[in-house]
Fold each of these.
Amino acid sequence: MELGAYSFGDTQLNPDGSLRSTAEAVKNLFDAIVHADSTGLDYFAVGEHHTLEMPASSPGAMIAAAAGATKQIRLGSGVSVISTDDPVRIFQQFATADAVSGGRVEITAGRGSSVESYPLFGYNLRDYEQLFEEKLELLMRVNEHEQVTWSGTTRAALKDLTVVPRPVNGSLPLWVGTGGSAPSSVRAGRLGLPISYGILGGAPHRFSALSDLYRRTAQQAGHTGPNIKVSVAALGLVAPTKDEALERFYPGWRNMHTQMGKLRGWPAPDDNAYLAQAHAPGAYYVGDPDDVAQRIVQLHGHMGHVRHFLQMDIGGLPQEHFLESLELLATEVKPRVERLLAIEG
Amino acid sequence: MMMHTTNSALMELGVYSFGDTQRNADGTLRSTTEAIANLHEAIVLADTVGLEYFGVGEHHTLDMPASSPGAQIAAAAGATTDIRLGSSVTVLSTDDPVRVFQQFATADAISGGRVEITAGRGSSVESYPLFGYELSDYDQLYAEKLDLLMTVNSSERTTWFGTVRAGIDDRVIVPRPVKGSLPIWLGTGGSAPSSVRAGRLGLPVSYGIIGGIPSRFGRLADLYRATAQQSGHRGPDIKVSAGTFGLVAPSKQEAVERFYPGWRNLQLLMTERRHWPNPDRARYEEQTHAPFAYYVGDPDDVAGRVVDLYRHLGHMRHFFQMDIGGLPHEHFLEAITLLGTEVRPRVQKLLRSK
């Protein structure tokens, strides 16, 4: 089981609650990835948002920066919002990072959990389905072939054009990222792509119905082998004790909920719901190393996932808590997970 | 003429590259992956030996695979400590200025404020079909996109409307640069209209001088400065840099021999792609001596010619494209080291003695 983290580049808060600089947020994220690598985590992903609170707007540039400053960790996007970007440019950025990293770079293509990129880049939400469908197809094409021919309705056609640079291992691992819809599971299975579930609430083990659907579809479509696999992204934070983890994660969780409440009409943050989610069978992997390790392994019993990675830095979580959590995940949670899986094995 | 000074040096020295793919013994191209990794290694070395600047240009070919200056510069930002990093050039006409800005601002944050953008039209046109643009819109694309890039760079919230891209109605564009905004240069092969444009906009100008007699660019630089002054622009942003071919080796003879095969390969490619004349060794050798444009030589020769050009151009930065047409990577690295350790002190000494 690979363990890791993902982040949108969370902006720190001043004592009065106002936002600190986005440049600092980006530098903090870079430092966190370097720290994750040096402590031995397997994976780090950068998501794309376009807000003062979450300023990691260019996963490609962030991953490239990390590629030049890390040794072992695998690097990816969580997710690249391909619907509102150009798959050729995305591929070029990630392939550049891949070359610099010696072949450690992946892409997770998704629709994203927010829609602020649509007006920014001149796309219409009416085209939501068509954009994703076509751009995923183009990204797969560009990833497999040095000379690309493609035509569709959402982008100019390519007629036998060279797309460089090429990845170290011939192509980049390309995942489909989804918040957990059945159609996305079917799509990934049909295309034979690995799937990454973002599980942001509820009872994670219920996602096993989706991962079963994914695996069944893949098999029916004739896709077998190492590319048919599942990863899980979830909220979480590791601290020396469960109480500390709960205390540390709460203010940022509350900030994010309040923000999302305004943006998306979420209900007001509810302390009881927070606590329920932070304990089995809830979705927040907030706890001490034993607690987090056990719950990851429990989920593995349902999902059979190969990678579990946590979004820790939300709503202004202090950077030092983020760094400590990454280190605990690598040095304390990881050996426990491996031991528990070996026993289960 | 005004003396142009910077904090640390009277003249910044550096390198630019398009990520040149190495060749096998039979002349076939090696992998583009290796080319990108080589380029990264070269930038890290340039930082180590004390060069002030490295620019990455954008092309989309198997022999020049640096297609994403933003990603390459970001990678370098995380692996260097002092060197300034930029594009040479970002082909702005066929990209989205918002995305370009976001990539460079990300790199800037990681570098601690060492990142610049040089916007240009590019010397080749392969990006037009690749990204679905029409060459008939060449001028309009560039003018509008430069305007948008400057708008995005100057404030956190952007409102902009034009014809070549969707309008932006009061939207946040993040992350923001460490020093408030990124230095934006205008890159040009040396046209009078581009010099006037840069002067009128109050942007620093970067001349790509890839042939002929560099001192003749003095007239363009004068035109640029006069236009800037007439437009009310003065101060540290009104400055000139020069990008030229060049290679440093222990002796002039070695430099001339090392640079020639790659120069010939590039020339042959350009003969095929752009109908340049066939490569001619005699003409090549002539170009490697004053007053011509190839800064190929030993440290004394290159330093002397950089300072000669300074008398005409008053430029504050001179950077060299060294790795062309399959120049062996070890020669590239040695030239970078010599530029930092041998040419640089000579240039500073010559400038101080003037």
Note: The mean pLDDT of chain A is 96.
Amino acid sequence: MKYPKYQYSSEEQMQYYEFVSIGSKGKIRKIVEYSTTSVEGVYNLAFGDYDEKTDGIDDKSITNNGDSQKVLATVASTVYAFTGKYPDAWVHVTGSTIVRTRLYRMGITNNLAEISEDFHVYGLLDDKWEKFIIGEDYEAFLVTRKHKINKK
Amino acid sequence: MKLEDLNKSKVPIVKIDKKLERFRGKVLFPEKLEQANTILKKVGLPDLAQ
């Protein structure tokens, strides 16, 4: 994605990522997780704020740190990192709210040409996956690499 | 790598942080995972050939 993004770190399996959002509310630690699902080779992407006080994650918080586009671009970048490690993986993502799912859809829409160079992109509509079409109101998204690159 | 280069690059430079190993094996977003499993069970995966 052509937008600015934060630098992030990961553990060796590349399934958990961390970066720091910096904005009007200060510094907020973000965690991105790729968890294994009940279907082999399919991972669920989720991210949220890390709360140091509770040592927990909140994926419903509305941070309003004024950098949502940069945060989304950073999360999108982790898809490149993750699928670099797991080139055959499918990545499923949906928002914790309808508004957030719509935000993801807009993020994909605004970058579809670039994303489509590297990924097959699908949207879930009426209990069916279809190739992502701009303007459709999808409930969830699924991507997988077009060109399976060498595993590390 | 400078931040400007990072922002231009599609392939990210990932710093390894061993502190993140503490999350390994944990499900940090159980509701999201359950939702994904429900969808996958119901709908499956798309056919790449289509």
Note: The mean pLDDT of chain A is 90.
